[in-house]
Design a protein that fits this description.
By secondary structure, the chain is of the alpha+beta class. It is 63% helix and 11% strand. Helix 1 packs antiparallel against helix 2 (59-71), helix 7 packs across helix 9 and helix 9 (306-322) packs antiparallel against helix 10. The chain crosses the membrane at residues 12-32, 111-130.
Length: 413
């Protein structure tokens, strides 16, 4: 029962009922007091008339009657008197109207009781109407809000500044509204993402597919030397490799956006993960004539999925290598302090135009100054998704002709 009294409406209505009951009890008691007073007046009036008659005929008998009136008679005298009155037809079975004084008092008392209960009933009906209209108004507000949500209007908000179940209900309603709105927004985003994904795949596959169709038509319809055929087949193979890498990368991004990738994170050396990433690019680094050096300051442990974090670092280091001239260098530093763990990857390559910096982590974005014809702008976007999934962030600073610096930061919580 106590749990319902957290509602201020119930406390107020209970207090009002108690006050009204006390008030009506006092009214009833006052009415009874008035009724007893009137009975006493009628009693005095009736016995006064009787005593006056007796006193007229015999004053001595009147003096004997007075004590009987005030002190009462014994049972024998009362029974004898009752018998005498019955001889004249007076008994308790007679109607009230044959007892004028009693009839008037009873009539007044009945009217008073009816009036009290009419007033009391009216007040209770009014209280009942006001209380339930208050509740139904609040319920209608919730109903109106629910209809607006069904119609797609999510700006409605039900506010309750009091404690109690209605306040909890309004809070739950607002939470439900936000959840529905967020879910619909997520569905719209997923739909838009699917449209963009299909558009991206179509756009990115169009060129290599067209090239392969041309190559195949040439191989089928023209007489080519063995060397020429071999060159066309090598080009076709390269296009297939590129398409394969592109499709895999796009699907990885799609899985990240759909939160469908499960990381197997464990506490392990961040230094070792960086070394594996550099080793994976060893052939590319040698062929580019670039020097890549790792700068360590002690062993740093970090909870991460080595496979995925390696892929993110490979894409960033690869980007630095591809945009650095022969004889250049790429430095990878890993540091730790009480606030964060950080990986800094910097090069002394061609740099990135300031206008391109805000967009380099967008998928399929290619910088205007980029000289790499094979770049399709998906590696950095994938790296950013992987790092953010690990709770990290990445930013870049660059200057044309000087080089670029990528900073990967993992805050300690």
């Amino acid at each position: 029962m106590r749990r319902y009294f957290i509602n201020p409406e119930l406390r107020k209505s209970t207090a009002a009922l108690l006050i009204l009951n006390m008030f009506f009890m006092m009214v009833v008691l006052l009415n009874l007091k008035m009724y007893h007073y009137n009975l006493k007046q009628d009693y005095v009036r009736t016995f006064g008339a009787v005593t006056e008659r007796i006193s007229t005929y015999d004053p001595e008998i009147a003096r004997e009657i007075i004590p009987v009136i005030t002190a009462g008679a014994d049972e024998k005298e009362a029974q004898k008197g009752k018998y005498v009155l019955e001889q004249y037809g007076l008994s308790g079975k007679l109607e009230n109207k044959l007892f004028p004084y009693i009839n008037n008092s009873a009539h007044k008392e009945n009217l008073n009781v009816i009036l009290i209960f009419v007033v009391m009933g009216s007040i209770f009906l009014l209280m009942n109407y006001l209380q339930y209209s208050y509740f139904y108004d609040r319920i209608r507000r919730l109903n109106t809000g629910a209809k607006k949500i069904i119609d797609g209007d999510y700006d409605i908000s039900i506010s309750e500044d009091r404690e109690g179940d209605f306040s909890k209900l309004s809070t739950s309603f607002n939470s439900m509204r936000e959840i529905i709105r967020n879910n619909l927004q997520e569905l719209k985003k997923e739909k838009q993402f699917l449209v963009e994904l299909l558009s991206d795949i179509s756009h990115q596959l169009k060129t290599p597919l067209s090239s392969m169709i041309v190559y195949n038509d040439i191989l089928l319809n023209k007489q080519l030397s063995k060397e020429q055929s071999r060159n066309f087949l090598i080009d076709s193979r390269n296009q297939l490799y590129r398409m394969n890498w592109l499709i895999k990368s796009i699907l990885k991004l799609a899985r990240f956006d759909a939160r469908a990738i499960e990381f197997h994170r464990e506490s392990q050396s961040l230094n070792e993960t960086i070394k594996y990433s550099i080793e994976a690019l060893e052939e590319k680094i040698k062929s580019a004539g670039i020097q890549v050096k790792l700068h360590e300051n002690g062993k740093i442990m970090f909870s991460h999925d080595r496979h995925w974090l390696c892929e993110a670092l490979i894409n960033i280091i690869k980007n630095c290598v591809e945009h650095t001239q022969k004889g250049g260098r790429v430095d990878v530093c890993v540091v730790e302090n009480p606030i964060y763990k950080r990986i800094v990857i910097s090069d002394n390559g061609e740099g990135i135009d300031e206008k391109d910096l805000p967009n380099i982590f967008k998928r399929f974005y290619k910088a205007r100054t980029s000289k790499s014809s094979d770049s399709i702008g998906i590696g950095l976007a994938l790296s950013k998704s992987i790092l953010e999934a690990h709770g990290g962030s990445i930013n870049v600073q660059s200057k044309l002709g000087v080089g670029s610096t990528f900073r990967i930061t993992f805050l300690k919580y």
